[in-house]
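re: ur question from the group chat, yeah i did fold both. here u go
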Amino acid sequence: MDLSYITSGSVSSHEDFESEDLSGTESQIYGVSRELVQSGHSVSIIRAGSESSGPVNAEGIQIYDVQAPEYPTEVGTILSKLIFSRRAADKIRELNPDLVNVIMKYPTVFIYNLQYPVVHFAFNNPADLRHTKPWLARNVTGFVESRIARNVDGMVVRNPNVKSWAEEHSNGEVVQIPTAVHPEKYTDDGDEKYLLYGGRLSSEKNIGHLIRAFSSLGSSIRGEYTLAIVGEGPEKASLKSLADNHGVADSVNFYPWLEKSEFVEVISRATCAVLPSEYEGMPVFVLEAMACGKPVIGSDIPGIRQLISHGETGLLFDKRDIASLTARIERLLSAPRERERLGRNARRRVQTKYNFADVASQYLALYRKLTSNE
């Protein structure tokens, strides 16, 4: 089978597949692509670049850059992605694959009317954006997602919440396929006494809740543990001010985006990981921590709930209840044996359910079903 993947369409999120220093979403594209190539399929990846070039061969995957303009405003970013979508459609006609799988909304707009079966990866139920997005952005997102859902041949979703929305709006095949990692690449390298958050520093991640919860811990615990926050985003300055205002600036350490290998090392030495998000698809960060044998404290939402069984592979808390988050942190930090048990169970779950070999086979089953209907 000849398959093409199209990435986010933004030059700012251009990913170096050749080095595998990838963000969560692109790690999924590359991991699945590599498994499919090893199974004898032909795979190309189309990404946004400052100029058009390629192909570059990465472990048998053909990677093409398609030029996308860069505009500084939010509206400009959308326009850039639409221009990329139009140019990516031309590249697809040139490659003539059996099927196209598009990541993100706007790069899909000029793709779904092509003659090839098109699969769209839906991250979120647009209704989940109501608490975190301005009215205009929320409604435009909902309109675009709904239009795409009605026109594509298949949709891949991560959790039941998004699946319910997709089944209501889509005329195509809707399949829930989990996120994956390579478990063999992750190890537990001890406990260096810090809690870890890794990801975008934006409002929907509720990182302010985590800082407030950390500041509410007893002085003896805060004297022993620190909080490490790895990532970049629009909330960084306000989060630093929040830590300062709550008197924990000396114990809350902010780090920029790290190279993948370095970030994995940071996870492997953490005491536990925390993800307090408002909504998620199925976060790679949680899987990576579980693969390292680390217990994870996560908000009780679809996407995280699919990965964490409360009291078995980690702990869940009410995303709006800071006291609940504080209690979960105190519980883990005061119980090393429970941390060990949860971490051991978490790693076992990743090994058996969330590896790329199994996940790639689920994608392939969908692709075969859609191409057999042609």
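okk and heres the other one u asked abt
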Amino acid sequence: MAKKLHYSYVDSGAMYRAITLYAMNAEIAKDGAVDEDLLITSLDHIDVDFVNKNGLNTVRLNGMEVEGEIRSMQVSSLVSQVSKIAAVRKKLRIMQQHFAGKGGVVMDGRDIGSAVLPNAELKIFMTADKTIRAKRRYDELLAKGTKITIEEVAENIEERDRIDTTRKENPLIRVKEARLLDNSNLSESEQLQLALKWTEEFMTT
């Protein structure tokens, strides 16, 4: 969508995953738990940004490209614990708002429309049937050579949803002005065309 509109693209979830990876590498997060106090004191030493490679944004952690590492199930199992920490959310919210400051940006994430960019011109709440979400994620991991069962993937998604919708800081919600895009039975092309149609409607009003 960003490429079609000639906008920049920000994957806010990748930013939380990058901080989670830092916590894992520094042994701030291990054995399924995160030392929140230690992570908070380490935030000044963490820099997350993006570099464009072949038209796609690749996330960097302290100058190192980590796009592959942040998509692992190990990171997925801890990212919601990291993302519920208020100080982490504040740091990344400021960065995300800075990225969007000049306009012309497509940003995705679980609190963009509600907390990060509450005045965004167009808000789209994307969702899908949980079984389909699990199958898509399972196929993605399988293609990368990750050995995992679809049941494990489904459990991970369900737990992340539970944490993200019940956290105190900026929980995952659909704001009333967000358009609902249920892509359970839509191809990538079909959902892109629908999102672009909504964008065109906004631009012509």
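fwiw on the second one: The mean pLDDT is 93. The longest helix spans residues 150-166. idk if thats what u expected
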